[in-house]
Specification:
The complex is a heterotrimer of chains A (353), B (501) and C (306). With 353 residues, chain A is mainly α. Chain A is built from 13 helices and two strands; from the N terminus they run E-H-H-H-H-H-H-H-H-H-H-H-H-H-E. The longest helix of chain B is centred in the middle third of the chain and has 16 residues. Chain B starts with a strand and ends with a helix. Chain C is mainly α and 306 residues long. Chain C has a single domain, classed as Orthogonal Bundle (ABC transporter involved in vitamin B12 uptake, BtuC). In chain C, 70% of the residues lie in helices and 2% in strands. In chain C, strands 1-2 form a two-stranded antiparallel sheet. Classes of the chains: A mainly alpha (353), B alpha/beta (501), C mainly alpha (306). Chains in contact: A-B, A-C, B-C. Chains A and B meet through helix 8 and helix 9 of A and helix 10, helix 11 and strand 18 of B.
Chain lengths: 353, 501, 306
């Protein structure tokens, strides 16, 4: 008996979705094996994860709170992926967005809630967008590998925020913890249903809608799709690739920056050390799983939100580090690659002659 | 009587969806040049890839010297002394000729003994009276020289069965002559040569035997003396109904395009075009002959705005458009069928509808303010698909899943949709089957009737002689002069192609 | 003073050097491995854990190389047999590596081992100024320098190296020459990942003999960038790695001297310099004939030819 790999027409529609789901399940099974290695019963752990994240109204809203930055970063990464730009710097762009929002919230004395929030929003877009524009411009002008630059810039952005919260911006009343002073109430987004669910979630949904319209319905979206599909064809069609690389990187960074704004104005109400448990990295998986579509990003972000809330519960109940979420994520990506392969190939057994 | 060195029995190979080889049978003897003749898509390359171990057949047997063998990988093929010069050369550009040759030598020690091996290579070169600088990196060689490196690799391996896949496509007629003499010499050393071609003339002069493949099946094997051009053509071409190409007689008076002393350099700083000049008249089909790599691509790219010239002028209808962008050149009436359909002509993941507006997507016809007008794009697609009878699997199918001929139709439909003044067509029929190729010729001739001028860049002299009004020859970025297709001979064109006036 | 900085430079550069050499070997086969960061952590933890339980530094190094090599093979297999996207797969490997070492390494936090000792080379170490800083290092430092020359020799002077380079440049040519493309890619990924793991183990067994969560701190990414800077040459990688070692050495030195510049700003320096160097290297690369392996990042499929 021997195995033989054959190509087949690509699987489409709901079957394609099923393979994706299947790969998530496989990833959970393998993670289960690792959980057993550290003496955690995976079945009860997964059950607790689900109960915690979806088992109650409060749990559900908590999941949506985590979903919010994921949608925004996911959209940012997805927009860049559309053009084959490997922006894996969403984490740093989120931090720079948070920095931009705090800069306004901490230093401008504005009474009006609306004006304050608008200024914070714009400032975060400005800094996050520019942060991503740096690798974008380097890519467009000198063809510098954007994957490495965006990634290295994450470290710089995080250190920059640390520099502020350990130094100049440290709250004098904060018992020497690495955090800034609290934002004024004008600088906070409204919360709903007596939970932590805040306006940021709706901002994220609106962003998803806008990204969808931009990419799928506009002339500019068409250009982006052509570049992403074949940049030589784009040049041949007279599309300005350099300009679009920079524009897309700016938008991509701005979206992740909005996540930073929303986290601070909606949840944390101050700038502090480690504001993100890796939303920006998770965004890469979201964009990939969602096949770069805006609607897909929303759905997959919710799934990852469940994982994050569940991950928190594992930390509380089983003393597991939050990094367990990274294990899941890595494994999901691995099994997704295998699943993608089986969408276009099949393996048959042949008898040796 | 020489012996049957290779026997192919009932080989079948299918790819997702279509059958490339169906019950193919073939016998190759020592000391013969055996031509495999067939249209594009007849299954020649697939069969050869099976022989060299790149593809595994679904069923069928292969015998070498009477013993059944199982060629599972290229390594097996090499062990059975089967060697091939591929159409896309299997060379490593970044390393030297010597290192490339090393890949085909049996190296028994782990560490490479450079001095010993170099002298061995030089010995082989002397034996076959070949001259090539083995220290040069491959990318610095001309395409013709690169092909020789490929051939030397087979000689070093002492291959008994040599397969050459359309080797003359990249050679001038004179270079081809030299190759043929060399092949005849190899034949006298009892090697079996499988020669793949669809150029009737050279098949006639060179072959001891011809096997014709059609739609993946063997039609017939004929011995020298049993075939003539007429017979081979009839056996090879599936559709006997030839489209009769009719060309009206025309007098050309109005000059529409003038290129003056154009200079273009490539990324490596070498000249692609040097003092290139050209004139084109309204309604004319100007054929451009030349070996690939003599500046044709740069010419097309400069004309269509993809590349900026260093100096010189391009004048269309008395307007200087030398430095306009590709978009404004398209608007001013220059359409472009690019060399490589799949890597340049289409956005492969987008639908046919979307690809049909690649050049004019921002025109008012298809947009409302910032938004695309899906309704009108669909309408446009319906019209073009009907007009050019583009065949696609289902609505919204990504273009990459279409056949080569249909992809070319999508490109042509799009390029001609704005009624351009000038069409720059690079190898528009390369890799198409005869039917599709004739269709392309027909479309170009129809547009000629409507007054469009065409620059037809091709390496197929038959094609150029068939439809051009005038032929210009390119060599090392220069225009070597014009010829009339009625009076010019292939020898004349060939001399110009190799730079001899 | 100079002597101390040279010493710190070499020690800080060594782990990056191992990782860079590893990535060079992998990329020479045509595969990009963005999982280096994760592999370094896997190597660091497995090395530390093995040494902690067995007391043997030698076994620690062996297990770091083997386990990181095997983890890297996941990437290799996904990029060959499963034709996966190399960037996604590499990122997945980094995520997995960061996560799994944090989870499994929890028990090791705060434990100590006896790390590698310095070995003084007679006579040479007596050279004034540089002698004691260059020729009084631990065995892993010496090994890394030896490897630079060994790998260079193997790549350019042996059949294995020629075949590997051919696979990375033009896998089709390699295939028709009878070279087993997949096997070479997998071996390169295994060896290269093992070296990245050794780079990680250098951190946990020699540099700071401890296990700290996420202790590679971006060195894996710096290594990936250095490969481009080094234009895929091992000797230039040595230079690059020590350059970065030098920057972190100076940075640490400044901190130790109680400078007023914030530690956070100083910690940014290696990343900023990596980006600057990457830009310069890329501009140079774009101008000349690229030494980047031609098939880098592409999936090889024998039946999927033009």
């Amino acid at each position: 008996m021997k195995f033989k790999v054959l190509k087949k027409p690509p699987v489409q529609g709901y079957k394609s979705f099923l393979t994706t789901l299947f790969s998530v399940i496989i990833a959970l099974l393998i993670s289960g094996a690792f959980l057993m290695l550290v003496d955690v019963n995976p079945i009860s752990a997964y059950k607790d994860m689900l109960i915690e994240s979806l088992g109650s109204f409060y749990g559900l809203t908590e999941t949506l709170v985590k979903t919010t930055p994921l949608i925004l970063c996911g959209l940012g990464v997805a927009v860049a992926f559309r053009m084959q730009l490997w922006n894996i710097g969403a984490e740093g762009q989120l931090y720079m967005g948070a920095f931009g929002a705090s800069l306004v919230a901490l230093h401008l004395n504005v009474e009006s809630h609306f004006v304050m929030i608008t200024l914070m929003f714009l400032s975060s877009i400005f800094f996050g967008g520019l942060w991503a524009l740096i690798p974008g411009a380097l890519k467009a002008i000198y063809n510098v590998n954007e994957t490495i630059v965006t990634l290295l810039m994450n470290y710089i952005a995080i250190l920059w925020v640390d520099f502020l919260v350990y130094g100049a911006w440290k709250d004098p009343k904060g018992f020497n913890f690495p955090l800034s002073a609290e934002f004024s109430s004008a600088a906070r987004l409204s919360e709903y249903f007596d939970t932590r669910l805040h306006t940021g979630f709706f901002i994220a949904l609106v962003c998803a809608l806008i990204v969808y319209l931009l990419i799928e319905k506009t002339i500019w979206g068409y250009e982006i799709k052509v570049i992403g599909s074949n940049s030589k064809a784009a040049a041949y069609a007279g599309i300005n690739i350099k300009k679009n690389i920079m524009l897309v990187m700016f938008i991509s960074g701005a979206l992740s920056a909005i996540a930073g704004f929303s986290e601070l104005a909606g949840v944390q109400h101050r700038l502090q050390h480690a504001i993100s448990p890796g939303y920006g990295y998770t965004a890469i998986i979201i964009a990939w799983l969602a096949k770069r579509s805006a609607l897909g990003v929303v759905l997959v972000s919710f799934l990852m939100g469940v994982l994050f809330v569940g991950g928190d519960s594992m930390q509380i109940y089983y003393q597991l580090p939050v990094a367990m979420v990274s294990v899941f994520q890595g494994l999901i990506l691995f099994s997704l690659i295998v699943a993608e392969f089986f969408k276009e190939h099949k393996i048959i057994m042949v008898k040796q002659q | 009587m020489s012996s049957c060195i290779l026997k192919i029995e009932n080989i079948t190979k299918s790819f997702a969806g279509f059958i490339a080889n169906k019950n193919v049978n073939l016998e190759i003897f020592e000391g013969e040049i055996h031509t495999i003749l067939g249209e594009n898509g007849a299954g020649k390359s697939t069969l050869m890839n099976i022989l060299t171990g790149l593809y595994r057949p679904d069923s069928g047997n292969i015998y070498i010297n009477g013993t059944r063998v199982n060629i599972k990988s290229p390594k097996d093929a090499l062990n059975y002394k089967i060697g091939m010069v591929h159409q896309h050369f299997m060379l490593v550009n970044n390393i030297s000729v010597f290192e490339n040759l090393l890949l085909s030598m049996k190296l028994d020690s782990f560490v490479i003994n450079e001095r010993k091996l170099k002298s061995k290579v030089k010995e082989i070169l002397r034996e076959f009276e070949l001259d090539i600088d083995i220290e040069m990196p491959v990318w610095k060689l001309s395409i013709g020289q690169q092909q020789w490196v490929e051939l030397i690799k087979l000689l070093i391996r002492d291959s008994k069965i040599l397969i050459l896949d359309e080797p003359t496509a990249v050679l001038t007629p004179q270079e081809s002559e030299f190759l043929f003499t060399f092949l005849t010499k190899l034949k006298s050393q009892n090697k079996a040569i499988i020669f793949i071609s669809h150029k009737m003339k050279e098949v006639m002069t060179l072959s001891d035997k011809v096997t014709i493949l059609k739609k993946g099946e063997t039609v017939k094997t004929l011995n020298r003396g049993e075939f003539d051009e007429q017979l081979l053509a009839e056996l090879m071409i599936s559709n006997k109904e030839h489209l009769k190409l009719e060309k009206s007689a025309k007098v050309f008076s109005k000059q529409i395009l003038k290129i003056k002393n154009l200079n273009v350099k490539n990324d490596k700083g070498l000249s692609d075009l040097s003092d290139f000049s050209l004139e084109l008249f309204e309604g004319e089909i100007l054929g451009i002959a030349g070996i690939t790599g003599n500046g044709q691509k740069a010419l097309a790219e400069v004309l269509t705005g993809l590349k900026k010239p260093l100096s010189g002028q391009i004048i269309v209808n008395d307007q200087d458009i030398t430095y306009s962008t590709s978009k404004s050149k398209y608007i001013s009436g220059i359409a472009h069928i690019p060399e490589d359909r799949k890597t340049m002509g289409i956005a492969p993941d987008l639908s046919v509808d979307e690809n049909l507006i690649l050049k004019n997507y921002s025109s008012d016809k298809f947009t409302n303010f910032f938004f695309l007008n899906k309704e009108k794009i669909k309408q446009n697609a319906r019209e073009q698909i009907e007009k050019y009878s583009i065949k696609m699997g289902y609505d919204g199918i990504p273009v990459r899943l279409l056949s080569g001929g249909n992809i070319q139709k999508v490109i042509i439909a799009r390029e001609l949709s704005e009624n351009p003044l000038i069409l720059v067509a690079l190898y528009p029929t390369r890799g198409l089957d005869v039917g599709s190729a004739e269709y392309v010729h027909q479309v170009i001739l129809d547009s000629r009737e409507k007054g469009m001028s065409t620059i037809l860049i091709s390496e197929d002299l038959d094609e150029l002689l068939k439809i051009s009004d005038r032929i210009a020859v390119m060599f090392r970025g220069k225009n070597m002069g014009y010829l009339s297709p009625e009076s010019a001979t292939k020898t004349e064109i060939g001399l110009l192609m190799s730079g001899k006036k | 003073m100079i002597s101390i900085i040279i010493d710190a430079t070499i020690r800080a550069g060594t782990s990056i050097l191992y990782a860079t050499l590893g990535e060079i070997i992998i990329e020479r086969s045509g595969i990009i491995n963005l999982g280096i960061e994760g592999l370094m952590l896997i190597g660091a933890l497995s090395g530390f854990y093995t040494t902690y339980t067995t007391g043997s530094l030698f076994l620690g190094v062996i297990s770091a190389v083997l386990i990181a090599g095997i983890a890297g093979l996941i990437h290799g297999i996904l990029c060959t047999y499963f034709k996966g996207n190399q960037i996604v797969s590499g990122l997945a490997l980094t995520m997995f590596g960061i996560g799994i070492t944090a989870v499994l390494g929890k028990k090791m936090v705060g434990q100590t081992i006896e790390g590698f000792k310095r070995i003084e080379i007679p006579f040479l170490s007596k050279i004034p100024v540089i002698g004691n800083s260059i020729f009084n290092q631990d065995i892993l430092v010496y090994l890394s320098i030896v490897l630079v020359f060994v790998i260079t020799f193997v790549l350019y002077k042996t059949v294995w190296g020629l075949n590997l380079r051919t696979v990375g440049e033009n896998p089709y040519a390699a295939d028709v020459a009878g070279i087993n493309v997949t096997a070479y890619k997998l071996w390169a990924t295994f060896i290269g990942s093992g070296l990245a793991g050794l780079g990680g183990a250098y951190l946990s067994l020699a540099y700071t003999p401890l296990w700290i969560e996420n202790m590679s701190a971006g060195r894996g990414w710096i290594a990936v960038a250095l490969v481009i800077f080094a234009s895929w040459s091992c000797k230039r990688a040595l230079f690059g790695a020590y350059f970065f070692g030098g920057i972190s050495a100076i940075q640490l030195r400044l901190q130790a001297m109680g400078t007023t510049i914030s530690a956070h700003i100083l910690q940014m320096l290696p990343y900023i310099f990596t980006i600057v160097v990457l830009i310069i290297a890329t501009i140079k690369l774009e101008k000349g004939y690229s030494s980047q392996p031609e098939s880098l990042g592409l999936v090889y499929d024998r039946e999927d030819r033009k």
